Amino acid sequence: MRSLTRTAGLGSPPEAVAAPFAAEAQRAVQENTIGLFVACYPALNRRFEHHIYPSPEGILVIAQDITERQQHILQSAEESEARFRTLADNISHLAWMSDESGWLFWYNQRWYNYTGTTLQEMQGWGWQKVHHPIMCSG
């Protein structure tokens, strides 16, 4: 847990945090469930996770500094993405990704080398430009 000076810890949270925090606290009390609220405090350059526990007397809030944990998660995700891209760009196959509607948003480097295209040309339904029309008909 990060220790704060007395003055840094006093007072109400910043306005951008106060309303959503109050809404989550109210929900936790009304539904008698544990609430969870994550907020960034720019003045402290920190991110906190707040667990809100309702009780007959009011609420108990436990705040935990999760800044380092989130930085570690982001760094791990970036490293994982870099490993994926290295693998995907060095396989001998053409590879791509699409969303649930079929909109293509990523191709591996082998695709660009083979087709001589760019992401801007191929994004969405652009892949049809490099296929025979018979292959693209429904």
Mind explaining what this structure looks like?
It is a single chain. The chain has 138 residues and is an alpha+beta fold. The protein is 43% helix and 23% strand. The chain contains six helices and five strands. It has helices at residues 6-9, 15-31, 67-90, 109-115, 119-122, 133-136, and strands at 35-41, 46-55, 58-65, 96-98, 104-107.
Task: Provide keyphrases for this structure.
138 residues; alpha+beta; 5 strands
What is the structure about, briefly put?
This protein has 138 residues and is α+β, with helices and mostly antiparallel strands. It is built from six helices and five strands; from the N terminus they run ααβββαββααα. The chain folds into two domains: 6-68, no CATH class; 92-138, no CATH class.
